[in-house]
Amino acid sequence: MAQVSTTLTSSELTPTSAIRREDFPIFNEVEQKPFVYLDSASSSQRPLVVLEAMDRYYRSTHANVHRGVYRIAEEATALYERARTHLGNFIGAPDPSREIVFTKNATEAANLFVQGLGRRRLDATSTVLLTHLEHHANLVPWMILKEQLGFAIRYIPLTDDGRLDLSDLDQLLDGVSLVGVSLASNVLGTINPVAAIAERAHLAGALVFGDGAQFVPHNTTNVVELGIDALCITGHKMLGPTGIGALWARHELLEEMQPFLGGGEMIADVRLDGFTPNVIPYKFEAGTPPIAEAVGWECALSYLESIGMEKIRHHEVELTRYALSALEEGLGDAITIFGPRDPESRGAVISFELKEIHPHDVSQLLDQEGVCVRAGHHCAKPLMRQLGVAATARASLYLYNGHEDVDALVGALQKCQAFFR
Amino acid sequence: MAQVSTTLTSSELTPTSAIRREDFPIFNEVEQKPFVYLDSASSSQRPLVVLEAMDRYYRSTHANVHRGVYRIAEEATALYERARTHLGNFIGAPDPSREIVFTKNATEAANLFVQGLGRRRLDATSTVLLTHLEHHANLVPWMILKEQLGFAIRYIPLTDDGRLDLSDLDQLLDGVSLVGVSLASNVLGTINPVAAIAERAHLAGALVFGDGAQFVPHNTTNVVELGIDALCITGHKMLGPTGIGALWARHELLEEMQPFLGGGEMIADVRLDGFTPNVIPYKFEAGTPPIAEAVGWECALSYLESIGMEKIRHHEVELTRYALSALEEGLGDAITIFGPRDPESRGAVISFELKEIHPHDVSQLLDQEGVCVRAGHHCAKPLMRQLGVAATARASLYLYNGHEDVDALVGALQKCQAFFR
Amino acid sequence: MSGLEDLYREIILDHYKSPRNQGRLESPPATLEEGFNPLCGDEITVSVLLEDEIVTDVKIDGQGCSISKSSASLMSAAVKGKSLRQIATIVRTFKSMMSIPEDEAIPFVGPDDPSNASDPPILSEAEMGELIALQGVVKFPVRIKCATLAWNTFSLALKKAQDAKIAPSEAP
Amino acid sequence: MSGLEDLYREIILDHYKSPRNQGRLESPPATLEEGFNPLCGDEITVSVLLEDEIVTDVKIDGQGCSISKSSASLMSAAVKGKSLRQIATIVRTFKSMMSIPEDEAIPFVGPDDPSNASDPPILSEAEMGELIALQGVVKFPVRIKCATLAWNTFSLALKKAQDAKIAPSEAP
Ligand SMILES: Cc1ncc(COP(=O)(O)O)c(C=O)c1O
Ligand SMILES: Cc1ncc(COP(=O)(O)O)c(C=O)c1O
Ligand code: FES
Ligand code: FES
Question: Which CATH superfamily does the domain covering B10-37+309-419 fall into?
Answer without folding.
Answer: Aspartate Aminotransferase, domain 1 (3.90.1150.10)
